[in-house]
Every structure is written in C-alpha cells, then in structure tokens.
Amino acid sequence: MARAHLDPHVDDRPVAAARDASEVPDAFDVPDEDLPRHVAIIMDGNRRWAREAGKDEAEGHAAGVEAIRPIIRHAVRRGIRALSLFAFSSENWSRSPEEVEILLGLLEMAIRDETPELREQGVQIRLLGRMEELPTATRESIESALAETAGGDRLMLNVAFNYSGRHEIVDAARRCVADGLAADQIDEEAIDSRLYTVGLPPLDLLIRTGREHRISNFLIWQAQYAELYFTDLLWPDFGPAALDAALVEFASRHRRFGR
Prior knowledge:
Elements: E1 38-42, H1 46-52, H2 57-78, E2 82-89, H3 97-121, E3 123-128, H4 136-148, E4 155-163, H5 165-178, H6 188-192, E5 205-208, E6 227-230, H7 240-252
Parallel strand pairs: 1-2, 1-5, 2-4, 3-4, 5-6
Helix pairs in contact: 1-2, 2-3, 3-4
C-alpha cells in the first residue's frame, strides 16, 4: 500500500462527479452477481486535500495512506476478488527528491505495518510495476509482504508501484521475444499472458478520485471494456460509502463489450 497517485498533469479544475457518496442507499442490496470482480482505483487528490485543509503536502500523503485501509477492508466485505491501487507511477520519479523520499518511506512503513492484518484478512499482496528499479529497502519490504501474504485467498491486492501502462505492454512484448516467439506468434493472447496482471480477473471497474476524467496510463490494456467512474471526492475523503456508490453505479450499467 502507498499514498495516492501523483499525476504530473493534474490541475485543480473541478469537474462533475459521476455520483457522490450521499446517493448510496441505506441498505446495500446489490446482488453478488452484479458486483465487479476486479476494481482498480486511481487514488488522486492528496495534495489538493492538504491545501484545502490548510495542511502541508506530507500530511496529505499520510492521509492518503490512511484512506487505503478501510477501502481494503470494505472490498473484502463486499466480496471483491481483486483490488488494484495506483500508488506511484513511473513518471512520479520526476517529483522533487524530498517528495519522492516521503512517498517511498510511506510505502515501506505501510507495507511493514499492515502486512499482519492483511494476512489475517486473507489478502494476498501483488506488485504491478518494475520492482527491480526500486530502492533496496522498499523492494525488500515489498518482497517480504508478498511472501507473507502469498496464501491469501479472499482478495488479491495489487499495488501499482513504479508502474506505467505503456511500460507494462513493452515488458510483455520483451517477454514474448525472450520466450522465443516468432512475430506471427505474438498476438493478444501472447501479450495478455505476459502482463503484470496475469492470473487476475478481467478489470471490471476503474475508479478515479480527485476531479479528473482520464486514466493516466493506468491499466490501459486491461481497461478495454472496464466501466469508468469519476468522482469529485479527493482520495483521503473516499471511504466505504463512496466505494458503495461506485458499486451501485456499476451494477446499474448495461455492459455491451463491443456488441
């Protein structure tokens, strides 16, 4: 787990939310078969949340980390099979050294502190991204969490860290070449089976907080037929009720899959 995604192109222009948390019904009565199996979240808005609350950016990032815990618990409660969180993009290395250090420190601390509870909840942690490029301490914390939660069978928690959707596709293509595939053998199935997300259910619902309407290079292959949900809520304010609002909206949509 980590603090919310820092999109290098984010500005402060407000846009309309798809549906806000106040519209969640008193009783959550969405049938299990109408719920998404795989939910992804672009956790945007930590810095704006801090500014609007009169706090510094580090406090906003810390609040973003704290917001992850109840979302994971609620995803387990709702029976979601996979939850993918955009924690740190490859572009985020261009942030100031001080901010990058804060983000890496928060990630390492969160993983270390939360792993025991995640293991008890039956959560399996997976990393999406180029782990080999991470600092040693951060990589070791992630590897430890991966090993300790490997037996989790209730929720696959996928932390996208040092992640880029384009890099993921490039890496999959490189694996095709490394595996000796001829050019005419490289098709969608060959790429799909070599993505970071291999073994996960198809992506059903992609949520973005923070008043922006774009997916910012996140799961761009997997989002082919995902339902998109945008909310004005800044990430630290996105709680279980807001997640329920997104699930209710998802259940109300008729998915055509190109038909």
